[in-house]
């Protein structure tokens, strides 16, 4: 996948806001990887801030909706993983400032 497409994908994912925290999933450091295969299937490997997050389904739906407008992406699979575990260290400087953690 070229850098422009990867940037577009991450830009779309920045529109997905964690409903409990109010910051997007990219700046929270929840997105670990994105991979696009030759058929246009995008696999988003991500985590959530807590196991058993009651809004996991909502976030997955929002991820899929955010990526629908990217022509190269024909299908999206969201793979929720717990390893490596998420921590505040994965957050961007922007997210830390927004949450008063600096």
Walk me through the topology.
Layout: H1 3-13, E1 31-36, E2 41-46, H2 56-67, E3 75-80, H3 93-98
Parallel strand pairs: 2-3
Antiparallel strand pairs: 1-2
Describe the protein's architecture and organization:
The protein has 102 residues and is α+β, with helices and mostly antiparallel strands. The chain has one domain (3-89): GMP Synthetase, Chain A, domain 3. The chain is 28% helix and 18% strand. It contains three helices and three strands, in the order αββαβα. The protein has helices at residues 3-13, 56-67, 93-98; strands at 31-36, 41-46, 75-80. A three-stranded mixed beta sheet has the order 1-2-3, with helices on one face. A hairpin with a 4-residue loop joins strand 1 and strand 2. The longest helix has 12 residues, at 56-67. The model has no long low-confidence stretch (mean pLDDT 94).
Give descriptors for this structure:
GMP Synthetase, Chain A, domain 3, 102 residues, Fe-S_Maturation_MIP18, 3-stranded mixed beta sheet, 28% helix
Q: What is this entry, summarized?
A:
The chain has 102 residues and is α+β, with helices and mostly antiparallel strands.
Under CATH, the homologous superfamily reads Fe-S cluster assembly (FSCA)
What is the succession of H and E elements? HEEHEH
Second rung of CATH, namely the architecture: 2-Layer Sandwich
| Strands, total number | 3
| The CATH topology | GMP Synthetase, Chain A, domain 3
What gyration radius follows from the Cα positions, in whole Å? Answer: 13 Å
The overall average pLDDT, rounded, is 94
Uncertain runs are none
| Count of helical regions | 3
State the secondary-structure class.
alpha+beta
Domain MIP18 family-like: 6-79
Protein name: Metal-sulfur cluster assembly factor
InterPro entries: Fe-S_Maturation_MIP18, FSCA_dom_sf, MIP18-like
Pfam family, one: FeS_assembly_P
């Amino acid at each position: 996948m070229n850098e422009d497409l990867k940037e577009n994908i991450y830009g779309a994912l920045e529109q997905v806001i964690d409903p409990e925290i109010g910051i997007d999933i990219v700046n929270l450091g929840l997105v670990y990887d994105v991979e696009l295969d030759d058929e246009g299937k995008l696999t988003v490997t991500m985590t959530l801030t807590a196991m058993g997050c009651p809004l996991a389904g909502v976030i997955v739906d929002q991820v899929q909706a955010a990526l629908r407008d990217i022509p190269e992406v024909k299908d999206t699979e969201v793979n929720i993983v717990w390893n490596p575990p998420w921590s505040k260290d994965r957050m961007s400087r922007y997210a830390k400032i927004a949450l008063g953690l600096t």
